[in-house]
């Protein structure tokens, strides 16, 4: 037996090993040109690359959210194939517990929806476990089912991210841009993603807020139709750590929902108070003692001096006027007299 052992299918000492196909007789098969033409060539798979950027996003919420927030979370999970879900977190638990949940789920990004007072919705976008993280107030939420848009995109397709030019002008917006890119973009060659690009995520800055829209690319000339969902992000703070730590940026234009509701209540109360004061003034005017006016000031307005006429005194009595008797009454008297004479 030779000293060099030869592995199965490996290389021998003489060079490359050849794989030989045998037929029943033990001889090598002879391939002709006609047989080569009949061979079916199987095309290579669409994606030959490897999944290197293993970004996983945990999307979940706290207890107390409404149906609109629940549908918004479901829409984000549908659009982003690299997301994972988890049960709702209790309100008593602190936010640092989310880092442990992400570690258990093997996620390095997190979208956490926090509900307060059953009417205010906050969203955390965090890079777990080292940070940074940003806290937003979510406003004007419209889901896929609510908008009833005509567009429709392929499930699991990779989106294009479109950002406003203002994201490159200010440092805190540049940090948010990088955080959004790592969170919302589907990694290349992800197992659950499709190798198509047929929709666009747009992030626009208007009125010191970030407006999120989702559009479908319907034709090659880049004409788009809005699909949904849509929502507005009002930045509150950016923290250095994950769900806490030193504050890197605080929005000076942010007004909390409690302050806004308080201003509305005070404005309504001031209007009611003003109406009540007007009513009290009207009552006081009615109950005041009215001054008795003895002489009317307006009596002499139309008083004009009359023309002076000479005084004429009549010394003789005026002549008596002849009163003409009514003919019908005279005839009546005559008839009555005749009747009396006849009776006598």
TrEMBL record:
Which SMART domains did the record assign? Brix (SM00879)
Question: Per the record, which residues fall in region Disordered?
Answer: 1-38, 324-344
GO cellular component terms, semicolon-separated:
nucleolus
Basic residues composition-biased segments: 1-20, 324-337
Instruction: Report the main location listed first in the record.
Output: nucleus
Q: Give one GO molecular function term.
A: rRNA binding
Query: Which SUPFAM superfamilies does the entry link to?
Result: Class II aaRS ABD-related
Residue ranges of domain Brix in the record:
55-244
Matches recorded under InterPro entries: Brix, BRX1
Q: Which domain of life is it from?
A: Eukaryota
Q: Does the keyword Nucleus apply?
A: yes
Gene Ontology biological-process entries: ribosomal large subunit assembly; rRNA processing
* Keywords annotated in UniProt: Nucleus, Ribosome biogenesis
By its UniProt entry, which Gene3D superfamilies does this protein fall under? Answer: Probable brix-domain ribosomal biogenesis protein (3.40.50.10480)
Q: Where in the cell is it found?
A: Nucleus, Nucleolus
Q: What does this protein do?
A: Required for biogenesis of the 60S ribosomal subunit.
The UniProt similarity line reads: Belongs to the BRX1 family.
Name-wise, this protein is Ribosome biogenesis protein BRX1 homolog
Organism of derivation: Salmo trutta (Brown trout)
Task: Identify the coding gene.
Answer: BRIX1
């Amino acid at each position: 037996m030779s000293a060099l052992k030869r592995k199965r299918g490996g290389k021998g000492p003489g060079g490359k090993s050849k794989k030989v196909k045998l037929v029943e007789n033990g001889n090598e098969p002879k391939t002709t040109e006609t047989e080569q033409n009949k061979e079916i060539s199987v095309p290579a798979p669409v994606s030959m690359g490897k999944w290197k950027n293993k970004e996983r996003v945990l999307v979940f919420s706290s207890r107390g959210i409404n149906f609109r927030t629940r549908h918004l979370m479901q829409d984000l999970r549908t659009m982003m194939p690299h997301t994972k879900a988890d049960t709702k977190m209790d309100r008593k638990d602190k936010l640092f517990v989310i880092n442990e949940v992400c570690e258990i789920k093997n996620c390095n990004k997190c979208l956490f929806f926090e509900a307060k007072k059953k009417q205010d919705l906050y969203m955390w976008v965090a890079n777990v476990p080292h940070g940074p993280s940003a806290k937003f107030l979510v406003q004007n939420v419209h889901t896929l089912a609510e908008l009833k848009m005509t567009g429709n995109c392929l499930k699991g397709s990779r989106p294009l991210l479109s950002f406003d030019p203002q994201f490159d002008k200010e440092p805190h917006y540049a940090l948010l841009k990088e955080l959004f890119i790592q969170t919302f973009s589907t990694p290349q060659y992800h197992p659950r993603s499709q190798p198509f690009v047929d929709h666009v995520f747009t992030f626009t800055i208007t009125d010191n807020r970030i407006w999120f829209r989702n559009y479908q690319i319907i034709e090659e000339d880049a004409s788009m139709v809005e699909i949904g969902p849509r929502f507005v992000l009002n930045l509150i703070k950016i923290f250095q750590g994950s769900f806490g730590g030193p504050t890197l940026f605080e929005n000076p234009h942010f007004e909390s929902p409690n302050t806004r509701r308080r201003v509305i209540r005070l404005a309504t109360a001031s209007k009611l108070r003003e109406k009540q004061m007007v009513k009290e003034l009207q009552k006081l005017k009615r109950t005041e003692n009215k001054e008795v006016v003895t002489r009317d000031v307006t009596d002499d307005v139309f008083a004009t001096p009359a023309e002076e006429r000479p005084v004429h005194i009549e010394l003789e009595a005026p002549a008596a006027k002849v009163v003409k008797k009514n003919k019908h009454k005279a005839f009546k008297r005559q008839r009555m007299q005749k009747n009396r004479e006849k009776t006598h």
